[in-house]
């Protein structure tokens, strides 16, 4: 696991992880958004030539985090599976083997828009599936970045990226965390996901991920 970057949000300490996740020490909770398991398989089922091995790559990163951090719960902020084609035999078998490795770890999925289309994970994976929001401490854990009347929202869905500009026309587009006054966004965890460019202003903080480190944008 890479070096975490601790921040304070809504009175809680959160660790931003270069693996594109958040660890919440007080709850011993690992928060993951938009893993999109089986996305490549879904595209291949439509005849699209896309990379293989994305599920195993995502599982490998998850395993490293779970081995390095004391976790009492793993919470997915939506889009666990990408679509109906994600129920490919090889994808589900890989997920079953992974779940067996962590059979005693409680896991929760906050149902996202892709989960509604793909269907819930197989019951054999023993993942509790709930609608948004999931209220925990000062946070409303959600998939969609919609405001909550009394809690700070931690959400996914957007797949935020930020463009850093260098000399001349040089620029770099990097996955990022975006923290606002009421709503904060996690980057997409999945290895085969796109991104939506976000901008920085005085109302938010942005932290980009590069070279396995977290970098605050000033």
TrEMBL record:
Pfam families: Metallophos (PF00149). It comes from the Bacteria. This is Calcineurin-like phosphoesterase domain-containing protein. CDD domains: MPP_PF1019. It comes from Pseudomonas fluorescens. InterPro entries: Calcineurin-like_PHP (IPR004843), Metallo-depent_PP-like (IPR029052), PdeM-like (IPR026336), Pesterase_MJ0037-like (IPR024173). GO terms for molecular function: hydrolase activity. SUPFAM superfamilies: Metallo-dependent phosphatases. Residues 30-119 form the Calcineurin-like phosphoesterase domain.
